[in-house]
Write a structure and sequence with these properties.
Radius of gyration: 24 Å
Number of strands: 13
Oligomer: single chain
Mean pLDDT: 78
Low-confidence stretches: 1-25, 59-67, 111-116
Helix content: under 10%
Number of helices: 2
C-alpha cells in the first residue's frame, strides 16, 4: 500500500530540458545508457536495471554561465526472489533488492581556471522482504509479509579555491551523510461469496528518521448480470527520502486518503459504460519552494 513517487522521473526531465536548451548553443553532448534484463528459472526470478545519462553543458539551470559542466545521472537496481511451495496451499517468497542512485553529480570548471566545483548526491537502498501466501479455500486467501530496508544518503561538495563554505546557499551542510532503517509489516485478506468480493488489508511502517505510519485498505466488488459495482476506501503514504530529510529534518510523510465508488454496465461484448466518483485528500503534503534571496 506504499505509494511510489516520481522523484527519479523529475530529475531526468530536468536533465533532458537542460540538454535541449544547451544544444542550441552547440555546446552540449549527451551519452545515454539503458539496460533492462532478467531471467526466470524454476521459480528463481532475477532482474537487472541500469540507466545512465552523461552530458556536458555550458549553462546552468535557467541561466548561462562561463563554466563548462559535466553532469551524471545514474540509476541501477538488481533484484532476486524465489517462490517455495511449502504445501499445495502455502507458499513463501523471499526477495532481496539492491538499488543505487546518483540523481545528481555535477562538476563545473571555469574557463579562466579560477575555481572548480564538484557536487555529488549518492543514495543506496538494500531491501529484504518475505511474503507468505495461504489459500485456505478457493474463495479465501491470506497474505502476510514483512519488509525491511536500509537507506544511505551522501552529499558532498568540493572546491579548489581557498576557504570553501561549510554550508550551501540554502544553509544545508555542504557535506553530509544520513542513514535510515525501516521495518514494515503488512497483511491482506481476500474472500468471495454470493455477496461479492471483499479485500481487507493494512500496512505498518516504523522508520528511524520520520514518524511511523499505519495505512488500511478496503475494497468491495460485485457483478450482477451486466452490472458491476465497486467501493474502495484506502490510505497510503509517501515517505520522505533522505535527500528531503537533509533539507528539512522535521519533514513528515504525506498521508493520502482515497474514497471511490464505481457503477458500470456492459452494453455489449466490446462496449462498457462506467461512472466513477472518487475523492483524494493529502495530509502534510511535501512541497519544494525556491528562495530567491539565496537562489536555492
Amino acid at each position: 500500500f506504499k505509494q511510489k513517487t516520481a522523484y527519479e522521473i523529475g530529475v531526468r526531465l530536468v536533465g533532458s530540458e537542460m540538454c535541449i536548451r544547451d544544444s542550441l548553443t552547440k555546446g552540449a553532448r549527451i551519452n545515454p545508457e539503458y539496460i533492462n534484463t532478467g531471467f526466470n528459472y524454476k521459480g528463481l526470478d532475477v532482474r537487472l536495471l541500469h540507466e545512465r545519462y552523461i552530458y556536458t553543458s555550458v549553462s546552468g539551470i535557467g541561466y548561462v554561465t562561463k563554466a563548462e559542466g559535466y553532469n551524471l545521472m545514474e540509476n541501477q537496481q538488481i533484484g532476486i526472489k524465489k517462490a517455495f511451495n511449502l504445501t499445495n496451499k502455502l507458499k513463501i517468497t523471499p526477495e532481496y533488492i539492491r538499488g543505487e542512485q546518483r540523481p545528481y553529480f555535477a562538476m563545473d570548471v571555469s574557463r579562466d581556471n579560477l575555481q572548480e566545483t564538484s557536487n555529488r548526491i549518492h543514495l543506496l537502498r538494500d531491501t529484504a522482504k518475505v511474503l507468505l501466501e495461504f489459500d485456505a479455500t478457493e474463495n479465501f486467501n491470506v497474505m502476510v509479509g514483512v519488509e525491511k530496508y536500509w537507506d544511505f544518503f551522501e552529499k558532498s561538495n568540493y572546491w579548489t579555491f581557498k576557504d570553501p563554505p561549510t554550508v550551501d546557499p540554502a544553509g544545508v551542510p555542504a557535506n553530509s551523510i544520513l542513514k535510515n532503517t525501516n521495518l514494515g509489516f503488512f497483511t491482506q485478506l481476500m474472500f468471495m461469496n454470493y455477496l461479492g468480493n471483499f479485500t481487507l488489508g493494512v500496512r505498518q511502517d516504523k522508520p528511524d528518521q520520520y514518524d511511523a505510519t499505519v495505512v488500511p485498505r478496503f475494497a468491495y466488488t460485485k457483478v450482477i448480470n451486466d452490472f458491476h459495482f465497486k467501493i474502495l476506501y484506502a490510505k497510503s503514504y509517501r515517505a520522505p527520502n533522505l535527500a528531503s530529510i537533509n533539507l528539512n529534518s522535521e519533514v513528515k510523510p504525506e498521508l493520502i486518503t482515497t474514497s471511490e465508488v464505481e457503477l458500470g454496465y456492459k452494453l455489449s461484448d466490446s462496449q462498457f459504460l462506467n461512472l466513477n466518483v472518487y475523492r483524494s485528500t493529502i495530509e502534510d503534503p511535501m512541497a519544494y519552494f525556491y528562495d530567491f534571496s539565496n537562489q536555492s
